Each structure stands twice: as structure tokens, then as C-alpha cells.
Amino acid sequence: MLNVHEMTKISLLASLIAVTGMIKIPSFIPGAEFQLSAPIAIAIVAVFGFWRYILAGMISSSILFFMGLHTILNVEISMIYRIVAGGFVALFGPSAPVLIAAGPLGTMAARYGLATTLQVEVWPLLLAALPGMIFTMIAVIPLTKMLKQVSRLEGRHYARG
């Protein structure tokens, strides 16, 4: 059973995933922009754990879907990414090599899932995702360190009153 503290934490993580998922970073390959949420997602699973990450991701996808900002294909891609990348970190631990590999593995699995759903070749989808995979590999360690710092502040109250 979740207490108020856990529900609040998961809700904040869902908001972070949703907002960063809507931020698209342009790529040098036309049409291959990528979401800032990919390295954030890996950092979340590394710092806050797999189950909090999956719950936050499900909430994020549900909200974006019901608001009309995501399609069912977006939800499919996101959930495949979360299960594969998050599961990889959960199985092998949050070491730097695992965190660096998790994003690209999740992206590849999500692109294979999308290719299967759309019945298209996977290679163009993987090629378009390559810049995002590289960005995720570069950004995941600094973002994980940042989230660890934020999580250390958890429970401290700075309001005076």
C-alpha cells in the first residue's frame, strides 16, 4: 500500500517524465529529433527504483494519452522502452556501464516493437534513433548524479513557519 509520501514522489516523477518527454531536441538527421525524457528515465530508475519508475511512467503515458498528446503508438514505444531499459538496470544494477547501455537497449527494443506493429523494416527506425541513443549515453551519468543529489534532499523541510 502506498502512503502519501510515496504517491507524491511517484506523481512528481510522472510529471518529470511527461514534461521532459514533450521536449524534443533537434538532430542533425532530419526527422530524428529525440526526447529529453530518455536519459531522465534511466536516471529515475537508477535513483528511485524500477517499480516507482514503471508506475510513474504508466501515469505519465496515461495522462499524455488522455490529453491527446500521445497516441497508442507513443504509449507502446514508451512502455517497451521502460520495461527493457528499466528492467536492464533493475537486473544488473545502477553501475555506469549498465546505465550507459540501458537507454540504447530500450530504444532498440522499442523500435523493434514499433517496426513489428507497423510491419516495416526496423533499420530506418534504428538509424533515426541513433543520435538520441548517443545523447542518452552521454547525458545519463550527469543526470543520475543530479537526481541523486535531489533525492538526498528528500524529507528535508526548508519552509519556515
Counting DSSP H or I runs of 4 or more residues, the number of helices is 6
List low-pLDDT spans.
none
What is the overall pLDDT average? 90
Termini separation: 31 Å
**H/E series:** HEEHHHHH
- Major beta sheet summary: 2 strands, antiparallel
CA-based gyration radius: 16 Å
Total beta-strand segments? 2
CATH topology: Arp2/3 complex 21 kDa subunit ARPC3
Q: What would CATH call the architecture? A: Orthogonal Bundle
Content of β-strand: under 5%
What structural category characterises the helix and strand content? mainly alpha
Report on the structure:
The protein has helices at residues 4-22, 37-48, 50-66, 72-92, 96-118, 123-152, and strands at residues 24-25, 34-35. With 161 residues, the chain is mostly helical. The longest helix is centred in the C-terminal third of the chain and has 30 residues, at 123-152. A two-stranded antiparallel ribbon has the order 1-2. The protein has six helices and two strands, in the order H-E-E-H-H-H-H-H. It has a single domain, classed as Orthogonal Bundle (Arp2/3 complex 21 kDa subunit ARPC3).
